[in-house]
Amino acid sequence: MSKLLIDRGNTRLKWQLVDGLTILDKGSIRNNDSFDAALSGYQIADLDGIWVSNVTSDHFESDLLAWSKKRELGVKKVHFVKSNQQAYGVINAYQQPERLGVDRWLAMIAARELFPGLLCVVDCGTACTLDVIDSSGQHQGGYIVPGLSMMSESLLSNTEKIKIDQPISEVFLGKNTSEAVSLGIRKSLLGFIQQAVNDLVEQYREPVSLVITGGDGALISKGLSMESIFIPELIFKGLSRYAGIKE
User: Residue 18, Cα to own-chain centre: how many angstroms?
Assistant: First the structure.
């Protein structure tokens, strides 16, 4: 039977309908759009279950449970994944494991499944998170900084005349205010990631696999002056493990 995987992020809700390793369908909507309408084409009652990563409010969870019950799936088949102290080869560094964002947790689990050795996992979304896992699977901790959109919004909210459009990606230096701001924001995030990786190499004296995901991950991965591996839907690979799916 098919399973529905849902990733509720800070700005968007994404989903995959899967049957084993086969993705039958997938989609994405903004958080303020109706997931009822977006998922209305699926035979929800026939699902084996729903597995959810949610970093927003508890209201979403109660709404999803009510929605699932109304469609005769039953609340026992809706699984809200939480960060654990230990799972699938990864040991949580937080003293209160559940306080680690579940999106970070799932990304680390997926990365550990795919790559051995010292890992640096970067999720470039609304916020940019960076987590380190050593070769034994121990999460060492990480960083959280504003992502590209959050930096832009912060700058715009504190200035009156700056307007930001999308810059041409090949531009080296901005020739107008919009390009200068957008490129400067991107450079600051690239510099943060590269410095963090350099610090890891110096600290651990071993190679680091840099794994990047998230909505802005492709742009950031392309701009780095070091090798990186871009995996756009890493969180879904982590959700798949909790749903009992393994490659």
Answer: 19
* Paired strand residues for 29: 13
Which uninterrupted H or E stretch holds 12?
strand 12-19
CATH number at residue 220: 3.30.420.40
Q: What is the DSSP code (8-state) at residue 97?
A: G
Task: Examine the domain organization and report whether 122 and 235 are in the same domain.
Answer: yes
- Render pLDDT for 145-180 as a digit per residue (tens, 0 to 9): 998 888 777 666 655 555 555 544 566 776 677 677
Structure tokens at 100: 């680690």
pTM exceeds 0.85, yes or no: yes
Phi, psi of 100 (to 5 degrees): -75, 130
pLDDT in tens, 198-242: 999 999 999 999 999 999 999 999 999 999 999 999 999 999 999
Domain span at residue 156 reads 86-239
> What's the token pair of residue 222?
């392309």
Residue positions annotated with a catalytic role: 103
